[in-house]
């Protein structure tokens, strides 16, 4: 069971459960909620790549999520573009905007970076909210098309969209896995641990940080485009800071800087939120203290706590075996 949560066995189990879920739970409401959870998980993976593996906490992630959503919405509704070209362009547009924002944002560090990105996220919200002629402001952008057909395969039904979003999520997880386990990913981790030490080893902090930032915005753009095509109506509230803090909650609860944490945290919190809707008015009052306690007593989240428990268990076994060997030798 060593590092089960980070191994391929978890992914295989996830695939089987997700494929079978609509067969055993044909309720359209639960399929809708799980599809949304998959979309949020994609956004959290982007945030985790920057915050968890590179060590830079971005509070503008909801803004980039909204840019991806509005890019797809505006290209399809106002520019008359087909769904698939718009779906490809939406995360690319988000990445380009993220690149230019990152050029300035990454000149700051630590809490200054977080404060700067918080301001950027709020500016993105204000632009969407106030630019009525382009975004329709508070009225929202309506009439966004569902994903277009892929040959004979139709993606217009909720079940088909469920499997489509899930397939994109798997692709994102695989991509993040390859990035993290590449030389680039190890450079991100080195910068997170010590930027000065990484630079002394010949790693370019600036190039790697901007790469991580752009990749993070790209995944946020993908999630935003999926959200727009799934809900088919978007408003400026998707760029608000509360969405960013929701994404942070998913990431921290699951395990920041882990590969499976974003998915576990997102599914768990979304499930709890849906089953505790009668406490919706007290949501922040409940989750706020719980999140604070989690950060204090288990900063590694669910995955980190499991790995620590597993490590301590193996260490006890090793010490016990060593003592038995020592006693046998003395006897």
TrEMBL record:
Domain of life: Bacteria
Tagged with keyword Transferase: no
Membrane-crossing segments per the record: 9-25, 31-50, 57-77, 83-105, 112-128, 162-180, 213-235, 247-272, 284-306
Keyword Amino-acid biosynthesis: no
Assigned keywords, A-Z: Cell membrane, Membrane, Transmembrane, Transmembrane helix
CDD domains in the record: TM_PBP1_LivM_like
Location in the cell: Cell membrane
Stored Pfam families: BPD_transp_2
Membrane topology recorded in Swiss-Prot or TrEMBL: Multi-pass membrane protein
Name of the protein in its database record: Branched-chain amino acid ABC transporter permease
Biological source species: Virgibacillus sediminis
Lineage of the organism: Bacteria, Bacillati, Bacillota, Bacilli, Bacillales
